[in-house]
Amino acid sequence: MTDSLRIVIVEDDVLIAMDLADLLIGMGHDVRAIARTEAEALTAAAEFQPDLMIVDGNLEDGSGVSAMREILANRFVPHFYVTGDPLQVQGLESDAIVVAKPFNLRGLSNGIMRARQTRQSHTDLRNEIV
Questions:
Q1: Residues of the chain whose pLDDT is less than 50?
Q2: Looking at residue 107, what is its pLDDT?
Q3: Among candidate residues 26, 120, 129, the one with its CA nearest the CA of residue 78
Q4: Going by C-beta distance under 8 Å and a sequence separation of 6 or more, which residues neighbour residue 87?
Q5: Is there a contact between 101 and 89 (Cβ–Cβ < 8 Å)?
Q6: How much of the chain is in helix, strand and coil states, percent to nearest 5?
Q7: What angle do CA 89, 11, 54 make, to 5 degrees?
Q8: How far is CA 47 from CA 44, 63, 68, 70, in A?
Q9: Three-state DSSP class for 42?
Q10: Domains of the chain, earliest start first
Q11: Closest C-alpha among 58, 63, 7 to residue 38
Q12: Where do the Response regulatory domain residues begin and end (predicted)?
């Protein structure tokens, strides 16, 4: 198993957020917060200083992509997107790491691994759909 990570989930669908949190906790990670809006994502990133963020690209109130742009302007946070529309996210963020909904444990694990590699190597992971 990988090291335990402090994770912030940005997801406006409560059931998906809870499922994602349960999977991550089962993998041994610490889910610090679930943000449902762009504003909540910014607050959670500042407050919890996560090791990883898992972000829905399209939020009911705001955009996960916009939230990550603002967060990354302040500090680098490994992240990936979990979305039902991977092509739309990649149209907004061409080097995004994307796990398509519906996701599974394997896709989630791959997303975590790839996001962590961006911090370690800063390799260009363009158009990765898991």
A1: 1, 121-128
A2: 93
A3: 120
A4: none
A5: no
A6: 45, 20, 35
A7: 65
A8: 5, 19, 15, 15
A9: helix
A10: 6-129 (3.40.50.2300)
A11: 63
A12: 6-116
* 7 vs 34: CA distance, rounded Å: 9
Mapped onto helix, strand or coil, the DSSP state of residue 35 is strand
- CA pair distance 29, 25, nearest whole angstrom: 5
Closest to 12 measured CA to CA, from 57, 67, 47: 57
Residue indicated by tokens 């335990």: 4
Calpha distance 126→28 (Å, rounded): 28
Whole-number Å distance between alpha carbons of 94 and 6:
26
**Predicted pLDDT at 125:** 41
Confidence (pTM): 0.87
Chain centroid to CA 3? 17
| Contact present, 77 and 119 (Cβ < 8 Å) | no
* Euclidean distance between CA atoms 55 and 38, whole angstroms: 10
What's the rounded Cα separation, in Å, for the pair 61 and 74? 22
